[in-house]
Specification:
Layout: E1 15-24, E2 27-37, E3 42-46, H1 53-60, E4 68-73, E5 76-77, E6 80-83, E7 86-89, H2 92-99, E8 102-105, H3 117-127, H4 133-146, H5 162-174, E9 180-184, H6 192-208, E10 212-216, H7 220-226, E11 229-234, E12 237-242, H8 244-249, H9 254-265
Parallel strand pairs: 3-10, 3-11, 8-9, 9-10
Antiparallel strand pairs: 1-2, 1-4, 4-5, 6-7, 11-12
InterPro entries: AAA+_ATPase, ABC_ATPase_HisP-typ, ABC_transporter-like_ATP-bd, ABC_transporter-like_CS, Ectoine_EhuA, MetN_ABC_transporter-like, P-loop_NTPase
Domain ABC transporter: 15-260
Membrane topology: Peripheral membrane protein
């Protein structure tokens, strides 16, 4: 697995966090957070529960609102911008346009139970991207083949196993041709025997596309295999950042050593 992102000639980060702060009431989850993700780079966030990892993904997906600071997608402000020295919200149209470049696979699948598998997959391409229903349907069938569910197009999510639902959720995210794919603990709600199947699909996506990935996972083997970079979080801060072979084999920070020792032992 290569250890350098496939950035091409464009050096503008696909994702940039600049002085980001996120509070929930008096609880400061993220404080003065600064990092970038290059085009085609796959970055995995590791760390204990409550360290702010999922909040980062939800901020990029605009499911949570920034308390302070800025997030940029391809150099454009995602939710707030600096205008004449004042921090102000961007237009809804700009946020919506940037959001179409971002896909997310959630821990709990988040499929629409009243829709068939096919309807779940084509909903956003048709109504957000303006794709024709025929083209979206053809693409959905190709994606269902890719995730190993070619015969489930007319099934409803409630009739599927957890592993099958998560594979549908991956197909739904890929149907939007995202520039950025966010993966939030995508195997944590699954039975252990199906985790490998889901991770194998994501490995294939990583190896056959140039999609930028921001990943939150406790599957350390998967993180080591697919990541160009691993960032260790604790208390809403990045305490260590480097290639997977360094973070997993020679971590420098004592907290990283403690965390990995506990996780790998489990």
């Amino acid at each position: 697995m290569p250890t350098e992102a496939r950035t091409g000639g464009d050096q503008t980060p696909v994702i940039e966090f600049r002085d980001v702060e996120k509070r929930f009431g008096d609880n400061v989850v993220l404080k003065d957070l600064n990092f970038t993700v290059a085009r085609g780079e796959r970055v995995t966030l590791i760390g204990p529960s409550g360290s702010g990892k999922t909040t980062i993904l939800r901020l990029v997906m605009t499911l949570e609102e920034l308390t302070g600071g800025y997030i940029y997608v391809d150099g454009e402000p995602l939710s707030h911008e600096d205008r004449d020295g004042k921090r102000v919200p961007v237009s809804k149209s700009q946020q919506k346009r940037l959001r179409t470049r971002i896909g997310m696979v959630f821990q709990q699948f988040n499929l629409f139970p009243n829709m068939t598998v096919l309807e779940n997959i084509i909903e956003a391409p048709v109504h957000v991207l303006g794709m024709s229903k025929r083209d979206a349907t053809d693409k959905a069938h190709r994606l269902l083949e890719q995730v190993g569910l070619p015969d489930k197009a007319n099934a409803h999510p409630t009739s599927l196993s957890g592993g099958q639902q998560q594979r549908v959720a991956i197909a739904r995210a890929l149907a939007m041709d995202p520039e950025i794919l966010l993966l939030d603990e995508v195997t944590s709600a699954l039975d252990p025997e199906v985790v490998g199947d889901v991770l194998e699909i994501l490995r294939e996506v990583a190896e056959t596309t140039n999609v930028t990935m921001l990943i939150v996972t406790h599957e350390m083997g998967f993180a080591r295999d697919v990541s160009h970079r691993v960032m260790m979080f604790d208390g809403g801060r990045v305490i260590e950042d480097g290639p997977p072979e360094k973070i997993f084999s020679h971590p420098e920070h004592e907290r990283t050593q403690q965390f990995l020792s506990a996780v790998l032992r489990d």
